[in-house]
Automatic annotation (TrEMBL):
This is Uncharacterized protein. Gene3D superfamilies: P-loop containing nucleotide triphosphate hydrolases. SMART domains: SecA_DEAD. It holds the Pfam family SecA_DEAD. It comes from Strombidinopsis acuminata. GO terms for biological process: intracellular protein transport; protein import; protein targeting. GO terms for cellular component: membrane. It comes from the Eukaryota. The keyword S-adenosyl-L-methionine does not apply. InterPro entries: Helicase_ATP-bd (IPR014001), P-loop_NTPase (IPR027417), SecA (IPR000185), SecA_DEAD (IPR011115), SecA_motor_DEAD (IPR014018). Residues 1-139 form the Helicase ATP-binding domain. Residues 1-139 form the SecA family profile domain. Keywords: Protein transport, Translocation, Transport. One of its GO terms (molecular function) is ATP binding.
């Protein structure tokens, strides 16, 4: 389908049906603008159908991220999802983990897949953190 031919509308059925399992569905977009726009427009449909919609944006705190990922349908950018995954794997305790406890992705639609999976694939996600291990251990 070409640009503006209704891919977002078509994906709604699949997202809704897979969210009914209670394990959540994600819509991964290429930027914050598209995530917000689609969460606001399509979120009205999901809310009408009885589902809770979450939106992940840059700069959100841990509690807000947890709540958004716990929603039935979550809109998020590929980079935010990637960094949340990395941060969860660096977490020292369960309170710092934001993705669903099962750690399993139930269902995901990648909007603008060509951009996310091809163009953005070459952009590394690098994260670092403090450690309590002595520095001489790494020499």
């Amino acid at each position: 389908m070409g640009t503006g031919e209704g891919k977002t509308l078509v994906a709604t059925c699949a997202i809704y049906l897979n969210a009914l399992s209670g394990e959540g569905s994600m819509v991964v977009t290429v930027n914050d603008y598209l995530a917000r726009r689609d969460a606001e427009t399509m979120g009205q449909v999901y809310s009408f159908l009885g589902l809770k919609v979450g939106l992940i944006q840059a700069g959100m705190d841990t509690a807000a991220r947890k709540a958004a990922y716990a929603a039935d349908v979550t809109y998020v950018t590929n980079s935010e999802l990637g960094f949340d995954y990395l941060r969860d794997n660096l977490a020292m305790n369960q309170e710092e983990v934001v993705l669903r406890p099962s750690g399993v992705l139930n269902f995901c639609v990648v909007d603008e897949g060509d951009s996310v999976l091809i163009d953005e694939a070459r952009v590394p996600l690098i994260i670092s953190g403090k450690t309590d291990a002595p520095v001489d251990k790494f020499e």
